[in-house]
Amino acid sequence: MTYQHILFEHDAGVATLTINRPTMLNALHVEVLAEMIDAVDRVRDEGSARALLLTGAGRGFSSGADLAGGGAVGRTGDGPIDAGKVLESHFNPLLERLFALPVPFITAVNGPAAGAGCSFALAGDIVIAGRSAYFLQAFINIGLVPDVGATWLLPRLAGRARAQAMMMLGERIPAQTALDWGMIYQVVDDAELLPTAQSLAARLANGPTRAYALIRQGLRDCLDKPLTEALMVERRNQRIAGRSADFTEGVAAFLQKRPAEFTGA
């Protein structure tokens, strides 16, 4: 696929996906989403990238669905609006692909992350925001309800009370507040955002990839399970990690008092 609305680069084990509609604050329509799905599938299938970094071009991460484009909210021709159709065909498949990646996924949030853009920003394993960034659940302002996983993700990050207020009041949550609420990992000066995220992505790309994948999967599996079931998941994943070449290398490096050289195997 030839990309018109995103930038996709791969360097030293890090794949960088940049939503590239800066004049539209990186608003998402079906063509953008199709390109993002294709790029994420490449990360999953080609096996050369060991970390994914997602960000937005220009002064914003993403303003969410492209309301002007119509199709992103189910407006096609003169027929009735089906605002759930594009969720099923594009938004939700992209979110599920991001969660199912076998490699670490980092987001670098610059400027606004609103609506669906908020969900994609907060879906990262590690979320780093520029100081001017903010998070917004804007759906109530146009008479819609949160989607793209927001009602699942936000209460787990910020707690039910804060998540519900975000959704019902439609107010901006500044980056520092998001950090204080436990929604994100780090806030840095805007000029340092991309270098910081790139450095972290490079670090993860040189780590034990299989263990990272099991951590991602294990957290999702255990979040709502009772302790006994969570212990079973941990035991299963530890058996898998213990068979990896990276575990063998990690132990050898520890005993030999040298840095480990992980390969992702």
- Level-1 CATH class name of the largest domain: Alpha Beta
Strand order, largest beta sheet: 1-2-3-4-6-9
Assembly level = single chain
* Count of domain modules: 2
By helix and strand content, what is the structural category?
Answer: alpha/beta
Largest sheet: 6 strands, mixed
Please tally the helical runs, counting DSSP H or I stretches of 4 or more residues.
10
Q: Can you give the mean pLDDT?
A: 93
SSE string: EEHEHEEHEEHHEHEHHHH
Strand content: 5-15%
CATH architecture of the largest domain: Alpha-Beta Complex
**C-alpha Rg, in Å?**
19 Å
Distance between the termini: 29 Å
Shape: globular
The strand count comes to 9
Helix share, percent? 40-55%
Written account of the structure:
This protein has helices spanning 30-46, 85-100, 116-122, 150-158, 160-169, 175-180, 193-205, 209-222, 227-242, 245-255, and strands at 6-11, 14-19, 51-56, 105-109, 112-114, 126-130, 134-136, 173-174, 186-188. It is an alpha/beta fold. It has two domains: 6-205, 2-enoyl-CoA Hydratase, Chain A, domain 1 (Alpha-Beta Complex), CATH 3.90.226.10; 209-255, Lyase 2-enoyl-coa Hydratase, Chain  A, domain 2 (Orthogonal Bundle), CATH 1.10.12. The protein has a six-stranded mixed β-sheet, with helices on both faces. A three-stranded mixed β-sheet has the order 5-7-8. The two termini are 29 Å apart. The model has no long low-confidence stretch (mean pLDDT 93).
